[in-house]
Amino acid sequence: MERKAINNIITPKIFEELCDTIGNENVFDKVEERTCYSFDDIKGKSMPDLVIRPHFTEQVSSVLSIANKHNIPICPRGAGAVLSGGAVPIKGGIALDLKNMNRIVELNARDLTVTVEPGVVTKDLQDEVAKSRLFYPPEPGCAGFSTIGGNVAECTGGMTGMKYGVTRDYVLALEIVLPDGSVINAGRKTLKSVAGYDLTRFFVGSEWTLGVFTKITLKLLPTPEKRGTVMSLFKDIDSALNTADSILIKNHLNPRSFEFADKTCIDAVRDSTEGKIPEEAEALLLIDVDGNEKNVANDISRIDAICRENSALRTLIAHTDEERDTLWDIRKPVATSIFKVTSMKFNEDISVPRSKVREVLEKVYELSKTHSLQVAAFGQIGEGHIHLNVFCSNAEEVEISVQDLVFQILKDVVPNDGTITSGLAPHETKIMQDLRRMFDPKGIMNPGKVFV
């Protein structure tokens, strides 16, 4: 295949070497192909020089070996569903699309494990293991199209994180292609593996900066017998937070999911709720519980009573799967529905200990008034994980007012034992940089990510 070099990174000779190694049909250099890989769910864009779609570990190994030899950046990609910019090839080079590596390699119901390739879609995996009455708990909001590889790279959590944890809690073993093309295995297909360092933890959440995982072994759980859902609406945020404290702290309940949304979020979805949300509602709680039938019925009854004790305007209880889906269909589209009330927004995720949620939210709303900017807040209140959306009218406002507001908010988050999506302490950064150089001395793996 003849071509001209796109730039000095991908020369005709390198292009031919890649095509000869993994096949012309897996290498793409047309602009219309590459454009699709220049962004993820954030607004920033950067074009890769090539797109490669491997099918097997051996092909990934060959690509990385060639890239390492010629100092070509590699940006692996799942579904591009993240908001961290992890899938954006900001240094150009090769976008490594893993969607064709989408096989469920082994489901072992007796051992409660499943081994998959990185391109398997999260919801597809959950549906498949459910046929064996098994349960893969991590459930990001984008589970319908996000991939397991991307989830591992980002260490995604989701709506079940409070009770069941995040992706790292389910990764037992990884097959990994290192930047030089060598293939290693980390971890074991056993629940207990305590010899030596836990290498899997280095790679989970690494944003593909240390290598490419080509097989992932995950822990599964038995499917809970019963699930129940309660949605409660409140006249103010304080009443909702009091209710959350009562459920979690005073009554020691442990919900499967515990979601919160403020008035701005409620207003964004109100038109599609068929009158379920009172006009005066300024806060929403959505609570899922699971377990055996008796315990679920008891938990639902207690949560209902607690909501009423805290002056809930309305409490809705789902008794069937269809009713539960109806309630969750109010919460799930919040992030996209916000665009009904603003044409532009700036996102930041914050996590604080649950006991600090009230204090941090109060500060967020106080600062938003000071800066004359509207803020929408929603998220997993049971984990202290809040998605902040700051409304803005133009790019200039983002550069000045919005970033100043976000900076002020973050100054309050970190002293409250909190963190942000992109937040690392200096000593953490130093250790991680040293680790990264050890695995990837040439710096080809997703450069510019995690830290510069």
TrEMBL record:
Gene3D superfamilies linked: 3.30.465.10, 3.30.70.2740, Vanillyl-alcohol Oxidase, Chain A, domain 4
Cofactor: FAD
InterPro entries per record: FAD-bd_oxidored_4_C, FAD-bd_PCMH, FAD-bd_PCMH-like_sf, FAD-bd_PCMH_sub2, FAD-linked_Oxase-like_C, FAD-linked_OxidoTrans_Type4, Oxid_FAD_bind_N, Vanillyl_alc_oxidase_C-sub2
GO molecular function: FAD binding; oxidoreductase activity
Keyword Nuclease in annotation: no
SUPFAM superfamilies (alphabetical): FAD-binding/transporter-associated domain-like, FAD-linked oxidases, C-terminal domain
Domain FAD-binding PCMH-type: start-end pairs: 44-223
Keyword vocabulary terms for this entry: FAD, Flavoprotein, Oxidoreductase
Protein name from the UniProt record: Oxidase
Species of the source: Candidatus Scalindua brodae
